[in-house]
Amino acid sequence: MTCYGNGSLTGIVSCPGSRSTCPGTGESDMERRNLHLCTAARHVPSSTAAPSRKNRRQGTIYQVYEPIFFQSIGNPFIFRCIDGILIDGNDKGISKCVYRSCSRRDQLGPFKLSDVTWLTPHHRNPLAVGQYVNNCSNDREANVCYQELEVPEDFPIELRQYIPNIKYSHDVTGPLRCVVLVALRDIQKEEELFSNYYTIVH
After folding, report:
1. Domain coordinates in residue numbering, the chain
2. Over residues 11-29, mean pLDDT
3. According to the model, what pLDDT value does residue 59 have?
4. Contact indicator for 95, 88 with CB cutoff of 8 Å
């Protein structure tokens, strides 16, 4: 996800070795990766985009007619936009290979047109990565929501290296689809983040 918002940008951090405060949550993919929960790095005002090391729905962008069957097998990190566009944010397996391949394909001379560092432990973009935010529950209401946005085609080419999204097909025209997390209320420092997977602000 790209993170723009009203007010100052804020941070979200993944806390290694910490367990979710959400009751009844067992070992998840996030815990197996030692990324147990996402918390606010500082106070986040309501209606502000909540950027982070773990906040943007990054990945390969698929149009509704493009093949994603094999990438989807056992993959909990595919996000479906309102219009049916899919964003595959998995940093493992086939999904990782597809993203790296598309990134190399689209490189324009010395300019990288997407960020691949979110696939590694060393992230170049501190605003990237949001697929590890837990879903809300009856005991923990959502404090962030998803909002779709599009990166215009005239976005500066030298800054595209920080956008962790890429189109599956190189001949697809139009803006680049991204999804951000936006605070639904004031969020305090170190408060765990919860989203509703079924709620998208359009």
Report:
1. 12-201
2. 43
3. 93
4. yes
